[in-house]
Amino acid sequence: MDSVEVFKGIRFPGFMHTQESLRTACGFQFQDTDVLLVTFPKSGTTWMQQVLSLILCKGHLWPIHNVPNWERAPWLEQNSFVKLLGNLDPSQPRLLTSHLGAEALGPALLHSKARVVYMARNPKDVLVSFYYFHKLAKFLPDPSSFEDFVAEFLEGTGFFGSWFEHVKGWLGLEPDLNMLFVTYEELHQAPRATLQKLSDFLGYPLGPEEEDFVLEHCSFPFMSQSSVVNYSLVPKEVMDPSQGRFLRKGVMGDWKEHFSPEQNEKFNTVYQAKMGNLGLHLPWTM
Ligand code: A3P
């Protein structure tokens, strides 16, 4: 199950990626009405898929309760994409998802006015979440040790490539795209203000009651119980529930429970070298 597809030097799980599916994503013809969510894995993709679905559904809740997130907001680069794209409701903007880097998707997007929501998360929390996901997801190899996992993350040689290059690549494209940059931490700390920013960006302003409604249905407790977003519909050969839950903790700063002082220092040194002089104001302290 944990076969590998290497594309443009980056490893992807072969279970749901092929050379053809990855090439299809790179050549995708975006429509100006499309909404594309881009994340590095474990940055809150499923959470944002839920928020964006709720904004776009305008109170029509059937999909939120009945359609899995991967069908509501299919991944461009996965081998199920073409089929799932055909099933999307043509009366609404298409909600699409991708973990691909800017160098792969940028050329196709530069020719469109599609809205791009880029969601980032504190990379230390991404790393911890990804570590547990490698145990849960049978299409990824079991991590040998946390120490090795940190080293691989810092080298950028793990699955889906380098977090640093992903964030820098997409931020580099921001001036040329119709793009909104948001963070997991903003959504956590200021959910209503972040929701308003997102709904304004999509051109779907919400009233206060609609906002309450969205916030309730994208909360961690609600999503943890919802089979169409908590991945409990996935066979155990694909995600093994004995190894944990997809909606694991949903908190900020869990890295503090995992990093040794040495690992933290090493991480900070690499972070500073790669991100330090970009002048970014990101809502996390390293
Ligand atoms: P943790 O493993 O730290 O708990 P992705 O969807 O990109 O794979 O990201 C998964 C991470 O987002 C998991 O992080 C998951 O718990 C968290 N997440 C999902 N829904 C969330 C929500 N409603 N509130 C907070 N965090 C959420």
TrEMBL record:
Question: Start and end of every Sulfotransferase domain?
Answer: 32-278
State which residue ranges cross the membrane: none
* GO MF annotation, one: sulfotransferase activity
- What keywords does the record list, in alphabetical order? Cytoplasm, Lipid metabolism, Transferase
Q: What is its EC number?
A: 2.8.2.-
Q: Where in the cell?
A: Cytoplasm
Q: Name one GO cellular component term.
A: cytoplasm
Q: What single Pfam family name could you report for this chain, choosing any that match?
A: Sulfotransfer_1
State the superkingdom: Eukaryota
* Major location (coarse): cytoplasm
Q: Does the keyword Cell inner membrane apply?
A: no
The kind of enzyme this is, by top-level EC class, is transferase
Task: Write down the InterPro entries for this protein, in alphabetical order.
Answer: P-loop_NTPase (IPR027417), Sulfotransferase_dom (IPR000863)
The UniProt subunit note reads as follows: Homodimer.
The record's family statement is: Belongs to the sulfotransferase 1 family.
Q: What is this protein called?
A: Sulfotransferase
| Organism expressing this protein natively | Chinchilla lanigera (Long-tailed chinchilla)
Q: What is the lineage of its organism?
A: Eukaryota, Metazoa, Chordata, Craniata, Vertebrata
